[in-house]
Amino acid sequence: AWTLAALLLFHDWLRRRFDERTALGGVLALGFAPVLLIYGHAFQTESSLLALTVATVWTFDRWRETRRLGW
Fold this sequence. Notes:
With 71 residues, the protein is an all-alpha fold. The chain contains 4 helices and no strands. The protein has helices at 2-17, 20-31, 34-40, 45-66. The longest helix has 22 residues, at 45-66.
């Protein structure tokens, strides 16, 4: 679930910064990265750390665009 959340947030961030094609390419590259495939299926902290790091970048970028706090 953490890996899926990271991929969805990463896709949305790339789509807003670039375009849909770049977002799909980025998600495919990250989704099929060997390290992500290994750690994404294990019950360890790496997948949650990745998801929360991507969520932090996504939130900061969204705040930078809107200068609003909250959703």
